[in-house]
Design goal:
The complex is a heterodimer. In chain A, about 45% of the residues lie in helices and about 20% in strands. By secondary structure, chain A is of the alpha/beta class. By secondary structure, chain B is an alpha+beta fold. In chain B, strand 1 and strand 2 form a beta hairpin. The chains are: A alpha/beta, B alpha+beta. Chains A and B meet through helix 7, strand 7, helix 8 and helix 12 of A and helix 1, helix 2 and strand 1 of B.
Chain lengths: ~450, ~70
């Protein structure tokens, strides 16, 4: 019975899956066997096909193959379920051609789906799928119309051997990732120098002691507020959420959410949706440190920072006191050195100015002018002297001339001067007969009366 | 308010150091900034050395929250 069914679903030539029309995807061979076709199709599926066909026929339109295929493709790519579907099954006919794309069939006892996983998605696979392996695939159904086949485009492939819980983890991770809860741009920076720290963890076990030990060693200058929480079992999730919310009521700089290692079941509270959302909605940055380095929970994805272990979380949370003091000392050194440099710089530029020729020998500045001034002074004196001499000459000449013109000197030379009414008479026209005249000589004067006048020039 | 001051002060000191090292400030301003940085450095050192670690745990009794010293 089993072998019969498998036979119906696989190509006689290559053994790969065939579609309901009996076409082999790999060989592109058509096996015209109506009888076989009817065998694979359940009655209900037949009805469905009939309905679609009636619809097409009822519109009296004849579709091209391309049109019909596009119509079908449209139905598939717009189907919410088919575009984000999780399918489990067994791998067969696995081909990783030239290390690029992966092609295989996924089958169970009753059905087969062709699968393709493209290069960009299959590069980071943590395991290599192989024939006979049970897997769980997330992907979407698409139509490859050139070959007339449908296939599952694989987005994620997981080893189903890891169990149901792991699948739940993957599905929730997928959902919350789509919602944007793990986005980098939502993550808040972890303060470098927190003054206060909240811790949500269990007081049982080594975790709380590990954290406190690291903080005491590195930076014993911080206020710590612990919310003791269950970290395992059914009620742990509510407890953790209450812890995160309660700590958000205080003005803390940072929260550490921690738990020791354990199985996926043990760590499960940290994969619960309400816990993930509480971390996402926290106003205070959260470092998650759940389990050992290899354990990954959704709390780790959503937290602002993931630490591989609780001890490392504590190291991330607080700075090293020695380092801080060291960097303060280093900065102090830089600042003192720099202010000294600045002062030295200013001092030397001041020195530069002072030692310039202007300030050292200020007379150099006026010396050229002084010389010029001296020259001009000498010239001026010379000019003045020359002018004085000239004037003196003129004065002497005038003196001689003036002496010569003095009437007294004329009288000395034997001439006389005639006055009438105390005024010099220079023409006979002013003299009449019988006028009394005074004649002045060099040695005295005489008074005389005019007897006659004769208008004839003497010289 | 004093909560964030340590980190802010540290950043301020760094900024002043860079400003001084750039070396284009007038002398008076350089000296003032230098004084400010030295004061901030003192403050930071004091803050680290004076704040003592304290550990408390929350006791949550059906939403009624109280504190206990944690040993």
């Amino acid at each position: 019975m089993q072998s019969e069914k498998v036979k119906k679903y696989s190509c006689e030539t290559c053994g790969r899956a065939i579609n309901h029309r009996g076409n082999c995807f790999a060989c592109n061979l058509k096996k015209k066997s109506d009888a076989k076709m009817r065998d694979f199709s359940s009655p209900s599926k037949d009805d469905g096909i009939k309905k679609v066909n009636e619809k097409l026929v009822s519109k009296d339109k004849v579709y091209s193959v391309d049109e019909a295929t596009n119509y079908l493709k449209g139905l598939i790519v717009n189907d919410r379920i088919l575009q984000n579907i999780w399918i489990k099954g067994e791998v067969s006919n696995f081909i990783h051609s030239r290390g690029i794309h992966m092609y295989f069939s996924l089958k169970d006892e009753n059905a087969v789906i062709d699968c393709a996983m493209f290069k960009n998605l299959n590069q980071d696979l943590k395991f290599l799928p192989g024939d006979g392996m049970n897997v769980i695939i997330k992907g979407k159904i698409d139509i490859y119309k050139q070959r007339g086949k449908y296939q599952l485009i694989v987005e994620e492939i997981h080893d189903a051997g890891k169990g149901e819980l792991y699948i739940r983890f993957l599905q929730l991770k997928n959902k919350l990732e789509k919602e944007g809860l793990f986005r980098e741009d939502h993550k808040r920076p972890i303060p470098k120098y927190p003054l206060s720290l909240g811790i949500v963890t269990s007081l049982q076990g080594a975790v709380i002691q590990d954290i406190l030990k690291v903080i005491k060693r590195r930076y014993p200058h911080i206020k710590i507020l612990i919310y003791p929480s269950l970290v395992q079992g059914n009620t742990a999730k509510e407890n953790i959420v209450r812890g995160i919310n309660a700590l958000n009521g205080f003005n803390l700089d940072l929260i550490i959410l921690a738990r020791g290692g354990g199985s996926l079941e043990d760590l499960w509270p940290f994969n619960e949706e309400i816990v993930v959302r509480a971390i996402y909605n926290s106003n205070i940055p959260i470092i998650s440190a759940v389990g050992h380095e290899t354990d990954v929970t959704l709390s780790d994805f959503v937290a602002d920072k993931r630490a591989p272990t609780p001890s490392v979380a504590a190291e991330i949370a607080v700075p090293d006191e020695k380092e801080v003091l060291g960097s303060l000392a280093h900065m102090e050194g830089r600042i003192f050195r720099q202010i000294n440099n600045i002062l030295e710089d200013k001092r030397s530029s001041l020195k530069n100015i002072i030692t310039r020729p202007l300030f050292k020998k200020p007379y150099n500045l006026i010396n050229p002018y002084k010389q010029n001034f001296d020259d001009l002074a000498i010239q001026l004196i010379e000019v003045v002297n020359e002018r004085t001499e000239n004037l003196q000459g003129g004065l002497d000449y005038l003196d001689v001339r003036l002496k010569a013109l003095n009437p007294k000197s004329i009288l000395k030379r034997g001439y006389s001067m005639t006055l009438k009414d105390d005024k010099i008479v220079s023409s006979i026209n002013n003299i009449n007969a019988e006028d009394v005249l005074v004649t002045v000589f060099k040695d005295g004067k005489i008074k005389s009366r005019v007897m006659d006048k004769n208008g004839r020039e003497i010289i | 308010m004093a909560e964030k001051s340590f980190e802010e002060n540290l950043r301020k000191i760094e900024k002043i150091t860079e400003d001084l090292e750039e070396g284009s400030l007038p002398l008076k301003e350089s000296v003032n900034k230098f004084k400010e940085a030295v004061d901030l450095l003192k403050l930071c050192n004091k803050e680290i050395k004076e704040v003592e670690m304290s550990i408390q745990k929350i006791v949550d009794k059906d939403g009624k929250i109280s504190f206990e010293e944690f040993e």
